[in-house]
Amino acid sequence: MRGVRLVVAAVCLWTLSGAARAEMSGGVVKIGVLNDQSSLFADATGQGSVIAAQLAIDDFRASHPSIKVELLVADHQNKADVGSSIARRWKDVDGIDAIVDVPNSAVALALNELLRGSNVAYLPSSAATTDLTGAACSPNTVQWVFDTYALANSTGRAVTRAGGSSWYFVTTNFAFGASLESEASRVIAANGGKVLGSVKHPLNTSDFSSYLLSAQTSGAKIIGLANVGGDTVNALKQAAEFGIGGKDQQVAALLIFINDVHSLGLSAAQGLLLTTAFYWDLNDQTRAWSRRFFDKSGKMPNMNHAGVYSTVRSYLAAVAAKNSDNGLEAVAELKRMEIQDPLFANAKVRPDGRVIHDMYLAKVKTPAQSKRPWDYYEILATTPAAEAFKPLEEGNCKLISQ
After folding, report:
1. CA 123 from chain center: how many Å?
2. DSSP-derived secondary structure for 372-387
3. Is the pTM of this model over 0.85?
């Protein structure tokens, strides 16, 4: 595969017992982390996801020393054809048992069709599209961290109820941005708010001045950023330069990661409203795991990294429970089992493959409020798991009998 960087890391565990070997294809459980290692989503996933997967495998090894696991890693370059080529080779040649992470909804949906009904457990924990557990749901697909509905629902509902009654959107001009804006607009209207307008910008925009001026002059109380990665960071940097984001007009980012806030600095990001599925400083369990991650990466994990850990940990628990790495059997077991997750509160896998858990509305602290490195968020509100994600009956998943 020309142009595709493929790194394979073998995790050498104890040899399988004879009984277990008969049920594990090839005598080993093979897990592939497929993500962006070099571009727009590299900071949000990248090597951090590889570290998170390795931590999950290490923890599984402590309680299941007889099961051998191998970790494969590849860069999909945010291209559906590249991602599909890697996944096809992993499935047909390398005997992969599970694929995790997969940021970028276009890539995630392409792999969902490629792997549908196969013996590969497809676990796109970092993908945002709701179609993965909606119209395109598959019996071997599980989506862990967030989706556009949950992000928009948590942010739009909490901010509107807190007084942010009028909104103006600065939206990236591709399907992800349109979905975020549409979902948020629905929630805002349902909670008594009003959307005054929106402006679209191309992916990887460097100059946001005209878009931010339109938002500022709209008079909206909330400027909603329906974009991601470098676009969100650039928009926030320029908003701070223009003095946008004060008491009368706040900025809400519908998708932003703690590493983005870190690169911005608190002076530029202070006061920003956002939704997250995970925060490293939430409780003793999240702090303990995050320090382990920090020791290996030099930075605190974001929600995608936590999601890869939780996905791999739970998948391996299902494999051990079934004594089989068959993807369909493992996913069916995930839907039956009680999820023991130290990082995501009240986690449960629904019949459509959507993992529901609590979501959090956060506000970025001021430099004076932050007491130590990575002390960035003030948690303002919790959206319970049962309310955070699109209701099962509204998802149009054909796995669910209507």
Report:
1. 11
2. STT--EEEEEEE-HHH
3. yes
